[in-house]
């Protein structure tokens, strides 16, 4: 590997922290996805169901849902089509903007959310929350908050 003397390379400590973060992120998301499979859902499906279940009237504009879930409008459209075919959501026109569409949680989607949520929460507890001492959760959140804020500020920017 060619090195650039101006590049602030990661120290061994920084490299270990970074790689541990990558491992945990990949492994945790993989496990949570596996735990949703018996319900016929993916992590993306579940995230959309959560967002719609928490939204006023269980509906969000497609553009807002794409931004919230960090998906392109095209990718979200394909995702919503799959979820529509499963009866979990439907699209509705936006009366104030003829080009706009809403994603709306159906009754079947709401029932699915209520049925799956307890299992998902148990999975999050088993594979993440319960592995921390209660007093460490606040410091963990505090450590990640500046990263989350920085990334939110730079979303869509190089």
Q: Give the strand content.
A: 5-15%
Let me know the number of strands.
3
Strand order of the largest sheet: 1-3-2
Q: What order do the SSEs take from the amino end to the carboxyl end, as H and E?
A: HHEHHEEHH
Oligomer description: single chain
* Rg of Cα set: 19 Å
Poorly predicted sequence stretches spanning 5 or more consecutive residues: none
The first-to-last residue Cα distance is 25 Å
Envelope shape: globular
Structural notes for this entry:
The chain is mainly α. It contains six helices and three strands, in the order H-H-E-H-H-E-E-H-H. The chain has helices spanning about 10-35, 45-55, 60-70, 75-85, 105-125, 135-155, and strands at about 60, 90-95, 95-105. A three-stranded antiparallel beta sheet has the order 1-3-2. Helix 1 crosses helix 5. It is globular, with a radius of gyration of 19 Å.
Concise synopsis of the structure shown:
The chain has helices at 12-36, 43-54, 62-69, 73-85, 107-127, 134-153, and strands spanning 59-61, 89-94, 97-105. The chain is mainly alpha-helical.
């Amino acid at each position: 590997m060619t090195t650039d003397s101006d590049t602030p390379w990661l120290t061994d400590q920084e490299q270990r922290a970074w790689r541990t973060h990558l491992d945990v992120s990949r492994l945790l998301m993989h496990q949570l996805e596996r735990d949703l499979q018996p319900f016929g859902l993916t992590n993306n499906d579940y995230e959309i169901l959560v967002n719609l279940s928490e939204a006023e009237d269980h509906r969000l504009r497609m553009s807002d849902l794409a931004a919230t879930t960090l998906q392109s409008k095209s990718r979200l459209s394909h995702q919503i089509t799959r979820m529509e075919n499963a009866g979990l959501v439907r699209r509705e026109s936006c009366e104030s903007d003829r080009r706009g569409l809403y994603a709306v949680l159906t009754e079947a989607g709401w029932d699915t959310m209520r049925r799956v949520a307890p299992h998902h929460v148990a999975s999050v507890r088993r594979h993440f929350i319960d592995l921390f001492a209660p007093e460490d959760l606040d410091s963990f959140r505090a450590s990640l908050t500046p990263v989350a804020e920085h990334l939110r500020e730079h979303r869509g920017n190089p």
